Amino acid sequence: MTLLQPTVGPTPIARTPHVTVLTDRCAGCQECVIRCPTGALTMDLGAWVAVADDNRCVGCRQCVRTCPFSAIEVDGPLVVAPREAAAYHQVAELAGNLEETRQGFPTWTAVLAETERCLACPDPTCVRGCPVHNDIPSFIAAVHRGDLDEAHRVLRLTSFLPDICSRVCDQALQCEGACTWSLAGGAPVAIGAIERFITDNAPVPALQAGPGRGSGLSVAVVGSGPAGIGAAFELVRAGAEVTVFEKDVRPGGLLRWGIPSFTLPRQVAERPWGQLRAAGVRLVSGHEVTPERVEELRSSYDAVILAHGAGQALRLPVEGGDLGGVVDATEFLNQARTALIQSRPCSLLAQSEERRGSRPATVLVLGAGNTAMDVARLARRLGAGVICVDWMDRRFAPVRPDELEEAGHEGVDIRFGRTLTRLEGDAGQVERAVLSTTRQVSAAKLPEVTGAEVTRENVDLVVMAMGYRIEAAFPGVAPDKPITRRVPELVDRRFQASGLLAGGSPAFARHRPVGELSLTREIGRMSAGLGTADRVFVAGDALVGPSTVVEAMAQGRRAAEAVLDR
């Protein structure tokens, strides 16, 4: 699809950056010259040192980050137009409402203005920040030309979930945090919103399966979530025969039960499996694979990919934790989602109705991460009052700021620096929660319970939404704890030379080290291709512990590539 639209030019900005080349340090290696996105740096062939043209400089500091000898300094502002922001949709009536709250770009004018901000860097750090290595400059350039078909073609090279990832990815810690504008201290290109614009305005193309290097191979995939989807996608398009085993009745894993429709609409979440089945992927649902069954699969298939996730919910070991009305996030998300879709009361809340009378139920959510926010916002749509408590300091909490803001708009009472110390109840049912204060001085240190202030809250339901961990489901062929992901002492030269590791911890990325985060994700992705036993590979949360949709998909694809390579 090619759409012709009026050209949108960048907002005029005063060009005042100044580049200083310290000639006594410059070794003439040309690292800065080949990576400058605007051609502001060239070589003095007589002195063999870099020469800067301030009139071409936009202040992105890519040269500063990539120079191995610290021979370049840049002063002055960033020459870039303001970022086009997508708005939050505040629904008029919250109860029972599953309308999508995050909106994409509404017009071509808006998205074209944002594409103008992309520098099309020669060594794009945003690509390294993306777990699947989407060719971001290329699909942005295609959108700028109005060619959404080409944008989809570029995305399909690396991703099967562009409509999903553009909605649920934490781009600030991935592609956008690694954008050269973010690394320079500015606002990055809105990569996620541009990707979403593509899928909102041109359907994701059907998956074309055909003869390829996978012809003649048969592969079993255990789990139908993002990692399983990524593996099946890569295998079936290469011509392999793929059978996916899923213990639930319906496929999708986390995409189906773990992310509410107001963030990920059902038709978007269900699209991948509709296309996979149409392409010939065989789905065996309602079938739980046991450890003994893995051996049978290995003898019946050329390879087995375990993508069963990390489904064991964390529970806080507190007094009263065994009372009725204390559940984990998985149970609540499943029941609340079904109740809202069917427009009926949630049975978990109905249990306390006789005791509380006409008073709205009060739900206490333990945790303030992304899963906790999903639980809290669903509970609000069921008409309950919600208190979220997390023992971390708000500055260090691993949650998207926009999710916190949206939850606050919807009436969720979020309290950081608090922890649950005891639950109390009568007749075996929870009725009160005792909360204490905590203190956390840095992200590297766990919070401490101070007990300086103790409060009691009347509650009708407690949901433990502190995350998940790996289950020891397949001893001997799958890890029983997450693999270690840390920055190695020797970093690949190409990665280091990109300047991403020198970008520090940008404010846009919530002061997290985006280079290190990207590198540790690479370790997880590459580990998925190594295998854990003869012809057995593990990918996604089952390998690295709870992570993200796009990381799981990337690891599923890498495991599939390893099968095809072998």
Describe this structure in words.
Among the domains are: 18-75, Alpha-Beta Plaits (2-Layer Sandwich), CATH 3.30.70; 326-468, FAD/NAD(P)-binding domain (3-Layer(bba) Sandwich), CATH 3.50.50. 33% of the residues lie in helices and 17% in strands. The protein is built from 22 helices and 19 strands. A five-stranded parallel sheet has the order 7-6-5-8-19, with helices on both faces. α7 crosses α9 (191-201) and α20 (514-528) runs parallel beside α22. It is globular and about 90 Å long.
Across the major sheet, the strand order is 7-6-5-8-19
User: How much of the sequence is in beta strands?
Assistant: 15-25%
Number of strands: 19
Structural class: alpha/beta
So, CATH architecture of the domain at 326-468?
3-Layer(bba) Sandwich
**CATH class type of the domain at 326-468:** Alpha Beta
Residue windows where pLDDT falls under 50 for at least 5 positions: 1-14
Task: Indicate the mean pLDDT.
Answer: 91
Number of helices: 22
Helix content: 25-40%
Q: Return Rg in Å.
A: 25 Å
**Overall body shape:** globular
